[in-house]
Amino acid sequence: MAFAGKGRSVSALIVRYGVLTVIAAIFIFPLVFMVVSSLKPDGQLLRDASSIRAFLPIGEISFDNYFAAFERAPIGLFVFNSVTITGLTVAASILVGSLAAFAFTYMDWSGRDFLFSMVLATLIIPFETIAIPLLLEVNNLPWITSEGLVTGWLNSYHVQIIPWIGDGLTIFLFVQYFKDLPSELIDAAKIDGANWLQIYWLVIMPISGPVIATAAILKFLIMYSQQYLWPLLVTQSEEYRPVMVGLQYFFQLNVAWGEVMAYLSIITVPVLIFYLFLQRAFIASIASTGLKG
Amino acid sequence: MTGSRQYRLARRERLAGWLMAAPALLLITVFLVTPFVLGLGLSFTNQRLVSPNPAAYVGLENYRNLVGLGVLVLEPERDGNGQLLLRDGKGPIYPSVRSFTRNNPDYPQYRGMREFTSFSLGQDRIVILARDVVFLKAVLNTVLFVLVVAPLQGGLALGLALLVNQRLPGINIFRAIYFMPVVLSIVVVALLWRFIYAGENGLLNALLSFLTFGLFQPIDWLGRTDTALWAILVMSVWQGVGFHMVIWLSGLQTIPLSLYEAADIEGASNWQKFRFITWPLLRNTAVLVLIVITMHGFALFAQIDVMTGGGPLDSTQSIVFQAVQRGYVRQDIATGSAISVILFVMVLSISLFQRYLTRERR
């Protein structure tokens, strides 16, 4: 709208849509290629790469690569691990983060302002700079198992979940949202005799849908799609590996490209469908991280 | 009566506040602040991941080993009359670098160093020595990556944001498509693009050959020292540009339309509107975008791990890749931590610098 001149002609419109479409092709064609290739046998896949056929589901089309991929790696297990780890972390980080944000926004307690600025300060620590010492730390932490107290958190679900629950960005997003809610809500609830936990759970959280969605989407992207270095460091056995680390089964020297594309499609297409349904919410969640930065 | 009741309530509020914030604060302290402080401490020791010996304090040793540099000026060798000794009439002969870096008691400062690069200056040959050639390479690659990615990705993202900020039917579909790679994992993207970049049967070579009517000779993009880092860079931009487009877009939408209407009345051109309205009002967004891209750029790891493993010939080494190599693969936690501290200082100083730059002009 900023640059829409008046008296727009038909040819100008065609140019606009032409530019938009060419750029869209750059973003979409690698994905089309991925899905289409997953349906082709390797020989045909490699031959097709030199022509437009690379993007068309023609020739010998089958799901053979998918069966082969499931034979090569325990894909079901990897998907289960990823879904478990992502789901639990997203839920826990929202609960813990919104509780803290509630205390930071509405309650008066000593140390509050200092601690909140500390939380904000942690946002500039890139995870990559603490990964190595964190690895040593979790390697020495105790954990209760059926055999009693054991030392070391490696090769487990909790080592992939617990360190990711406390999250400055989630707290920040909730504080931004809570600040804009009318304070009469809190006052009215107090007069009605509600305690703090009741105000949080019965008054504030039910009207926090938008920020919960935002925080959940961002955390989901971090835990499902962007998580790679940490699980690579802490899961030596395949039992606890998530899908992104499971990729390692497919990028050895002799790459069976058809199987690779099948695996990539398995772990990506559900997310893409999820995204297409919720794309407004996805885009809004990214936008809200930038609004008040 | 009311006073003591209010006091009781205030005390309860203090306690409740602490309790509600405690889980988050505890987790952040244990899993973020502690490893951060721990890493700083470990970088001054010789700690290993698994070791029978307790760690000892070694001072700045790890840092010295990582960033130690030396400059060696080699004078050409001469015969007894002071004449230059020439090799087959081609060029002068220089003493070998090894004679300085191996057990030469006169040059203890060069001991154990290796040649990073060299060039001629007059008759002399200047040799840059590094204690850790691979790490130096990783730092230079990462800095180059960030220096190119920040303006390129930020600029392209702004272009896309301006493009999809028009009021056209169906524009939301294009927004959604441009954002799509963001929801993909960079690991997935890296593996997918390995095929696109492949030397034989690669999609990119086929496309370039088609566009140039067969003139283009296929290139093994990830297998050559002069193209591998750039290939990874282009792919990273492709994957992340939609993210920053959305941040720019949210900045663009905070600009009041009335400013553009006023400019229209004054007869301003599109470029003038951008130069004098859009850009100045986007300054805060620009800082944010640059900081986020810089932090992502310095964290370069997954692409390297999946696509090249640091090769060919260390041309795609990165700082985080080195931190993982030392700290994890070689179980040298101390050096890994020192690399992490160096990385943090770089990220911090650059984001402070970016903030300073954009604040000054306001």
TrEMBL record, chain A:
Q: Cite the SUPFAM superfamilies for this sequence.
A: MetI-like
* Lineage, broadest ranks: Bacteria, Pseudomonadati, Pseudomonadota, Alphaproteobacteria, Hyphomicrobiales
Transmembrane regions: 12-36, 75-102, 114-136, 156-178, 199-222, 260-278
Q: Self-association or partners: how does it assemble?
A: The complex is composed of two ATP-binding proteins (UgpC), two transmembrane proteins (UgpA and UgpE) and a solute-binding protein (UgpB).
Tell me where it resides. Cell inner membrane; Cell membrane
Q: Which InterPro entries match?
A: MetI-like, MetI-like_sf
Its main subcellular localisation, reduced to a broad class, is membrane
What keywords would UniProt list here?
Cell inner membrane, Cell membrane, Membrane, Plasmid, Transmembrane, Transmembrane helix, Transport
Give the UniProt family note. Belongs to the binding-protein-dependent transport system permease family.
Q: Does the keyword Membrane apply?
A: yes
Report the source organism: Peteryoungia desertarenae
Q: Kindly provide the name given to this protein in its UniProt entry.
A: sn-glycerol-3-phosphate transport system permease protein UgpE
Q: Where is the ABC transmembrane type-1 domain?
A: 79-278
